[in-house]
Each structure stands twice: as structure tokens, then as C-alpha cells.
Amino acid sequence: MIVESVRRWARGHTRERRYSPVGVTFHWTVAALILFQLWWGWRTGRLPVGADKLQAYEIHAHVGLLIFVLTLLRMGWRLMVPGPINDADKPGWQSTAAHATHYALYAVLLALPISGWAMISATAPDLELKLGGLVAWPHLPLQDLAPETRWRIETWAEVVHAAAVAALVVIIPLHVGAALKHEVVDQDDVLRGMLPGLRPLRRLLRRVWSAAAPHSATPPRPGPGSGGG
User: Fold this and answer.
1) Which of 80, 113, 118, 150 could form a disulfide with 64 if both were Cys (CB 3.0 to 4.6 A apart)?
2) Which of 13-27, 106-120, 161-175, 191-205 has the lowest mean pLDDT?
3) What is the pTM of this model?
4) Are 154 and 117 in contact (CB under 8 A)?
């Protein structure tokens, strides 16, 4: 069976405490798109009202829908092929915090595109939606609702969208900081499982850490006549 063959192939990677190439591709593709969306959303909000702003919103929506679909696919992949058991799974508060952060990140990655989809569907049904700018995407069926109802939906969706962006701005540094701590301080296998070819980067990070970390002062050796008399 194809599914079982895929699972066996992926387990060949997870048994070595590494994510499969599919999982790695999902992770870094979504990460790059998220960083783009944060920058593009900030840029779009500062454009003057006009054709350029409308086009920028379209691009923002197209990329958001792509993140939505990739997140769903990634969740399906994780259900079919669980990630590796690594040092982040050791019992303790750090493991609990790591899993909570991952669940929060998935929730945010779903809330952002869904809320944006609802905003556009409620008040801008003429705006063409496309998955990644290529495949036509339908609006939510909100056009037949009363105008005041659609504006209420838009208002609440905008609140959810802003809250999700704020949560993402907090979660990303926590996620990156935890990964760097595992690599530089704990020197375990967490980051290595998601970042192929890590050894040169690991050596560089350790050199930077050694240069930045304060060194403990070495007590002076006693002089020839410093003993008690």
C-alpha cells in the first residue's frame, strides 16, 4: 500500500531522530512564507488608498491561503508520520512548553488565513481570491447576509486577525530562541533534526557563543610570601 510505503520511508528518517525531507520542506517553506507575510502585511498597511494597496491586499490574501493549505497538509503529514523522538521530548517543563508552543503556532497559522478569508468574503466579495496566486479560491458564503451582519463578521474577523498577528510576533522569537538554546547551550539533537547539514553552523554558533559569554575570573595564584605565618 502506498501510504504504508511512505510511512516506512519516513520512519527511516525519524528513527535516526531526524524529520523526514517532507517535514523539513513543510517547515522551512511555511517559515519563509510567514516572514514574508509579516513584512508584506506591514508594508501594505502603510500604502496610500488606491490600486497599489488593493493589489498588495490581493497578494497578501493569495499567500495567506497558501499558508492555510500548507498548514493543513503539514498537520495531515504529522498525523500520518509523527515527528522523531528527540531531546526536546525529555520529561519536564521545557518539553511541556515546547509542545504548547507548537499547538499555539498551529492555531495561529489557521486563525490568520481563516480570519482574513472571512474579512474579504464579508466586505470585499469582488476581490478575486487565488491559492498562491494561481488557483481560483471561493469566497465564504456570506454575500446573502444582511450588510450589518457582514460588517459585524468583518469587525470580529479583524480582531482575531490582529490578535493572531500579535501572538505570532511573540511565538516566533520563543520558537527560534528555544531552538538556539537546544543547539548552543544544551548541545542536543533538536535543531539538527530539522536543519540538514548543521555541523558547520553549529561550529559557528558555538564560536559566537563562546565569544559573547562572560568568562569567569580566574583567582590569582598566591605569591611566594602570601602564606600564613
Assistant:
1) 113
2) 191-205
3) 0.78
4) no
